[in-house]
């Protein structure tokens, strides 16, 4: 067995283990809480279970909606169709690129290989970057999930969407200024083991084969892709929800209030959480809302904007597809832009 195959199998086993943990907790949580064993369990762990299940159960419908939409786009929407709507002018194309993200429900892990394919077929680098950071936040599924998670605080919803739109254009403009003389920032050799399971259709020939396939074959391919993506997203959601529940239960309340009450420290901490938890953008709002009583609204917006633009899992994908220097500059640019924008907005809107 090759090392790359071992890593893939290990990740799949981790995902299955996390899903199994969720099923056990879901199916037997009521029985445990009402049985004699409940007295033997610390109340803190029962609280962890309650918070964990509430986050996951609220997020699953939006995950399902997102993975099926992403599968359909991945299989049936060509890169040429997307490129047709973008102006040729470098600066003018920034706004339509951000608007394009509002109609395509692709998460931050699905968007990286899509952008790579678009750039290979002639899309300008800076336009691809705008699409890369805008699409995982501005799409309809994320809007719906954020609306549901923060239905009592709609300011966070609209601030998330508006800030993501503006920052996507700013980030694209900054990177265009830096790399306009060196637009080719793709790696010549792609490390497939790091590239992620989304890279199933890589080129026009595959898309033509899909179009010629029978209805049953197309339906089967859509289901395969959706199931594959659901398992990938599901394990990150479950892991993130579990960690969030642990933080909510065991982190010292006085320390949490000290960190969460300060705009600078709370924003920084929530951006670190967003990066490390690596949640799917279609479900991260439910995890963020669980921190609502401890952290400021501004820091929650930082979590919701920064995570879909840059997290641990898509960092590996970026290094797999793009040159190291470009990825490092991209990471610094996104981090500084999000932190600065949230701090500026904290005293005005939030």
From TrEMBL:
<feature type="transmembrane region" description="Helical">
    <location>
        <begin position="127"/>
        <end position="150"/>
    </location>
</feature>
<dbReference type="InterPro" id="IPR005524">
    <property type="entry name" value="DUF318"/>
</dbReference>
<keyword id="KW-1133">Transmembrane helix</keyword>
<feature type="transmembrane region" description="Helical">
    <location>
        <begin position="263"/>
        <end position="279"/>
    </location>
</feature>
<keyword id="KW-1003">Cell membrane</keyword>
<feature type="transmembrane region" description="Helical">
    <location>
        <begin position="326"/>
        <end position="349"/>
    </location>
</feature>
<feature type="transmembrane region" description="Helical">
    <location>
        <begin position="89"/>
        <end position="115"/>
    </location>
</feature>
<dbReference type="GO" id="GO:0005886">
    <property type="term" value="C:plasma membrane"/>
</dbReference>
<feature type="transmembrane region" description="Helical">
    <location>
        <begin position="162"/>
        <end position="179"/>
    </location>
</feature>
<protein>
    <submittedName>
        <fullName>Permease</fullName>
    </submittedName>
</protein>
<keyword id="KW-0472">Membrane</keyword>
<feature type="transmembrane region" description="Helical">
    <location>
        <begin position="50"/>
        <end position="77"/>
    </location>
</feature>
<dbReference type="InterPro" id="IPR052923">
    <property type="entry name" value="UPF0718"/>
</dbReference>
<comment type="similarity">
    <text>Belongs to the UPF0718 family.</text>
</comment>
<dbReference type="Pfam" id="PF03773">
    <property type="entry name" value="ArsP_1"/>
</dbReference>
<keyword id="KW-0812">Transmembrane</keyword>
<feature type="transmembrane region" description="Helical">
    <location>
        <begin position="230"/>
        <end position="251"/>
    </location>
</feature>
């Amino acid at each position: 067995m090759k090392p790359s195959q071992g890593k893939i199998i290990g990740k799949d086993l981790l995902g299955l283990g996390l899903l199994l943990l969720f099923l056990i907790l879901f199916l037997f949580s009521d029985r445990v809480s009402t049985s004699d064993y409940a007295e033997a369990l610390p109340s803190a762990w029962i609280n962890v279970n309650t918070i964990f299940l509430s986050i996951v159960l609220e997020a699953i419908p939006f995950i399902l909606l997102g993975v099926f939409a992403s599968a359909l786009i991945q299989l049936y929407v060509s890169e040429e169709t997307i490129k047709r709507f973008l102006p040729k002018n470098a600066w003018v194309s920034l706004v339509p690129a951000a608007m394009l993200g509002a109609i395509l429900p692709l998460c931050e892990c699905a968007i990286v290989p899509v952008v790579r394919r678009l750039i290979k077929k002639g899309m300008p680098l800076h336009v691809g970057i705008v699409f890369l950071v805008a699409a995982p936040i501005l799409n309809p599924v994320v809007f719906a999930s954020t609306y549901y998670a923060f239905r009592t605080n709609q300011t966070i919803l609209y601030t998330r969407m508006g800030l993501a739109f503006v920052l996507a254009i700013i980030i694209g403009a900054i990177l265009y200024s830096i790399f306009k003389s060196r637009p080719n920032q793709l790696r010549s050799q792609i490390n497939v083991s790091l590239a992620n399971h989304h890279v199933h259709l890589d080129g026009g020939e595959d898309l033509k084969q899909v179009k010629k396939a029978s209805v049953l074959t197309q339906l089967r391919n859509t289901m395969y892709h959706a199931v594959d993506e659901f398992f990938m997203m599901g394990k990150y959601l479950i892991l993130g929800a579990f960690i969030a529940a642990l933080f909510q239960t065991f982190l010292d309340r006085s320390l949490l209030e000290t960190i969460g009450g300060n705009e600078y420290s709370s924003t920084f901490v929530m951006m670190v959480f967003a990066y490390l938890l690596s949640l799917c953008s279609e479900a991260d709002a439910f995890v963020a809302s669980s921190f609502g009583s401890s952290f400021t609204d501004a820091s929650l917006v930082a979590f919701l904007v920064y995570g879909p633009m840059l997290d641990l899992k898509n960092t590996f994908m970026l290094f797999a597809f793009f040159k190291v220097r470009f990825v490092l500059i991209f990471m610094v640019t996104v981090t500084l832009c999000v932190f600065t924008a949230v701090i500026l907005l904290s005293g005005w809107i939030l």
